[in-house]
Structure formats: structure tokens, C-alpha cells
Design a protein that fits this description.
By secondary structure, the protein is an alpha+beta fold. The protein folds into 2 domains: 88 residues; 218 residues, Bira Bifunctional Protein, Domain 2 (BirA Bifunctional Protein, domain 2, 2-Layer Sandwich). Helix content is 42%, strand content 21%. The strands form 2 sheets. A 7-stranded mixed beta sheet has the order 1-4-5-9-8-7-6, with helices on both faces. Strands 2-3 form a two-stranded antiparallel ribbon. It is rod-shaped, with a radius of gyration of 44 Å. Bound molecules: 3,4-dihydroxyphenylalanine. 3,4-dihydroxyphenylalanine binds next to strand 8 and strand 9.
Length: 326
């Protein structure tokens, strides 16, 4: 009997000093499991005289019951402590916004192209594709650009060999289209163009849009009207615009359109009546047909649209910049 009492005290001590439920499991199997002292004792109970047997049996059962009890109490205590600790340690800020899927958006250049295309689509222009790798005939010669013109210089232009280059302007599309199509012509084209330049207003690759109309009785007023309407549409308000005489080898007269922005005139569109030499180069009868053409840099327009002061932002893939246009 004193063995049993000692045993119980020993178990009590072990239980109260155990730090986790795993230690409790070990104590349980050591003192109540198959090979425990108490199990062995129970198996030998028939050796005790009948007179004492029931008393000893009851005592063993009581000790078993008490051990189970203190283990389960301590287990509950440990579990409560673990829970409390995890509640204080793992605080959740339920006011934080949930995690959502990040949805991408269109690049501001892409959305500008979509907008511009929509405007001209409504005027019955068709959008035609061009080539980024061009030859000097389509990029220069047929457009009446003289052989010694600075834009042909390898300092400014990416030549791939003597004849082949990365196009410097989308105007080459005018040549390609007129080669295969007769008037009436009413096209626009968008695409990348390449020039050796890098600073806050120039990147070696940028986007241009080209437009060409060739038909009977086309005159400068048609051009002016469409350009005014287009700029008001693109900037979504009436802009102050200036038409300034200029020079391009492939138009006569040539005009540059400036737009008033923050008290400055900014040049945004090059245009003019298609030079008769260009039409003749492409076998279009200049006695019957005349045309106008225009070209613009998309980045330049988008910079004015959103007050962006450095063209290089468009190509840095900085999400902080791009996210603003979603
Ligand atoms: N290709 C010219 C440039 O890159 C822009 C231009 C000017 C296009 C006049 C035209 C035009 O179609 O008529 O600077």
C-alpha cells in the first residue's frame, strides 16, 4: 500500500512538471500502460488472500482513476495555455484588406492606340499593318527623301546592311499601300519605329501612327478639319492648336501642328498634302487624285495626355508607373 501511495506522489510530481502533452502521453503509458507496475499488480491480484483482495483491488482502481484524472486535468491546462499563447502571439489584424488577385491593365501606349484607332475607324479609315524591317526604297527613296538626307545617316539610323534598316518612320506604309492599292485610299497604321536617340524625350524605339488619304478633290481643309477633330477627341477637350508651315520631302505644302500645353507650344503632328512626286512614284495620276498624309508620335501624345515628363518611363516596366493607367 505504501508502494502505491509513493507511486501516486511520484506521478503527481511528474505530471505537474511536464511541459507538453507529449510528455503527458509518456507518463500515461509508463504508469497505466500494459507493462506498468499497476497493470502487473492487477494481474497478480489472485495471489492476495480473499479477505484483502477487494480492498487492494479498489485501491488500485482508485489510484488508476486518480492518475487518469490528474493527467487529463493537466492536459486541459496545457492545451489552454498553448491556445492563449497562440492568441497573443499570432495577432490577426482583421481591419487589413483581404488578398485579391492582381488584375493587369493595358499599357498606356496600347490604350492610346485603341482610342486613336476608334476615332479613325468611325471615319472609315482602315488600319493596315506595316513592316518594322524595311528597305531604303520604302523608307526613303519613294518618299522623295534625297540620298544625302541626314535621316539616312548611320549615326541616326539602324542599318542592318546597305539596303535594309529598322524603319525610321511609319511613312513607309504609304509606299507599300499605294504600290498595291488604287485610290480612293483611306488608311491608318500604327507601329514601332527606330532611331538612335536616348534622352528624356527620345528612346531608340517608339511608336508612330501614320495616316493617308488619296482621292479626288482632296484639299488642305480636309486635313485641317480631321486633325482638329482628332486632337479634341484624343484630349477630350477643345485644345488650342496652331498650324505651322514646315518641310517634309514627301509633302507639299508641309505643316506641323502644335498644341498649347502648360503655356508652351508642343509639336505633335507632321502632315501635309502628299507630294506629287510621291504619287507619281507609285503610278497615281496626279491630274485626277490628290491626298494628304499625317504622322505622329504616340508617346508624345500620351505624355501630354497625362503630364508625363520623361519618355523612358514607358519602357522601364516599373509597376508603380504602369498601375496608374489601369
Ligand atoms: N514621318 C514623319 C516623321 O517621322 C512624320 C510625318 C510628317 C508623316 C508628315 C507624314 C507627313 O505622313 O505627311 O517625322
Amino acid at each position: 500500500m505504501s508502494n502505491i501511495k509513493n507511486l501516486f506522489n511520484k506521478v503527481k510530481e511528474k505530471v505537474s512538471s511536464s511541459k507538453n502533452t507529449y510528455e503527458l502521453d509518456l507518463i500515461y503509458s509508463k504508469f497505466l500502460g500494459k507493462n506498468s507496475y499497476l497493470s502487473k499488480l492487477t494481474k497478480k491480484i489472485h495471489l492476495i488472500s480473499l479477505k484483502d483482495r477487494s480492498y487492494v483491488g479498489k485501491l488500485i482502481n482508485k489510484v488508476k482513476y486518480d492518475i487518469t484524472n490528474i493527467i487529463s486535468k493537466h492536459r486541459a491546462y496545457l492545451e489552454k495555455k498553448t491556445l492563449e499563447k497562440s492568441i497573443t502571439d499570432e495577432k490577426i489584424d482583421i481591419t487589413l484588406p483581404g488578398r485579391t488577385n492582381r488584375i493587369g491593365g493595358l499599357h498606356p501606349i496600347t490604350s492610346a492606340i485603341i482610342d486613336i484607332n476608334y476615332f479613325f475607324y468611325k471615319l472609315n479609315f482602315i488600319n493596315v499593318p506595316g513592316l518594322e524591317i524595311e528597305d531604303s526604297y520604302h523608307n526613303f527613296d519613294a518618299l522623295n527623301i534625297p540620298i544625302n538626307h541626314p535621316s539616312r545617316n548611320p549615326k541616326d539610323t539602324f542599318w542592318l546592311d546597305k539596303e535594309i534598316l529598322l524603319r525610321t518612320q511609319t511613312s513607309s506604309i504609304q509606299v507599300r499601300y499605294m504600290k498595291h492599292n488604287k485610290p480612293p485610299i483611306r488608311i491608318i497604321s500604327f507601329g514601332k519605329v527606330y532611331r538612335k536617340d536616348y534622352n528624356i524625350t527620345h528612346t531608340p524605339m517608339f511608336h508612330q501612327m501614320e495616316g493617308l488619304v488619296v482621292d479626288r478633290n482632296i484639299n488642305l481643309l480636309h486635313l485641317k478639319h480631321i486633325m482638329c477633330k482628332f486632337l479634341n477627341f484624343f484630349f477630350n477637350k477643345k485644345k488650342i492648336i496652331r498650324f505651322r508651315m514646315s518641310y517634309f520631302p514627301f509633302t507639299e505644302p508641309s505643316i506641323e501642328i502644335d498644341i498649347m500645353n502648360n503655356n508652351n507650344w508642343l509639336e505633335v503632328i507632321g502632315c501635309g498634302m502628299v507630294h506629287p512626286k510621291v504619287l507619281k512614284n507609285l503610278n497615281i495620276n496626279t491630274k485626277i487624285f490628290s491626298g494628304f498624309a499625317f504622322g505622329l508620335g504616340i508617346e508624345r501624345l500620351v505624355m501630354i495626355r497625362y503630364n508625363i515628363n520623361d519618355i523612358r518611363y514607358f519602357f522601364k516596366n516599373d509597376l508603380r508607373f504602369l498601375k496608374q493607367f489601369k
